[in-house]
Design goal:
Helix content is 98%, strand content 0%. It is mainly α.
Length: 133
């Protein structure tokens, strides 16, 4: 191998080494960018997990509140049914009392009319006796 070939071989090796070094630098930069991206993803996953935890806690509180609300609605419905039954009984008693009152009023009216007629009859007889004397 002569000097010229040796020089070409060394130049080739130096060019290859320079390209290899540039390639390695690019790979290192990409690896650094990848690591930074992974760090961001991990941070986002941490925030996501914390958000999911808060959401699960809120869901549990909402479920508990809904359960209490359902119990309150059931209790209110039962109370409404009891009060509705009581109202029906009171209404029926009021209707019965009104019917009895109307019957008594009718009987009193008849008694008053009969008494008024009797008094009128007595007065007419008494007036008739006074005219004859």
């Amino acid at each position: 191998m002569d000097d010229e070939e040796r020089q070409r071989t060394m130049d080739f090796i130096l060019r290859q080494q320079a390209q290899f070094t540039v390639g390695m630098q690019k790979l290192e930069e990409q690896q650094a960018q990848f690591a930074a991206g992974m760090q961001k993803i991990e941070e986002q996953q941490g925030r996501f997990a914390a958000g999911m935890q808060r959401l699960e806690e809120a869901d549990a509180r909402a479920s508990e509140r809904l359960g209490r609300l359902e119990r309150v609605v059931v209790l209110m419905a039962r109370q409404f049914r009891r009060e509705r039954g009581d109202l029906r009984e009171r209404t029926a008693a009021l209707v019965d009392a009104q019917i009895r009152t109307e019957e008594v009023t009718r009987q009193n009216g008849e008694a008053i009319r009969a008494l008024t007629k009797a008094v009128d009859d007595i007065n007419q007889r008494g007036s008739g006796n006074g005219n004859n004397s």
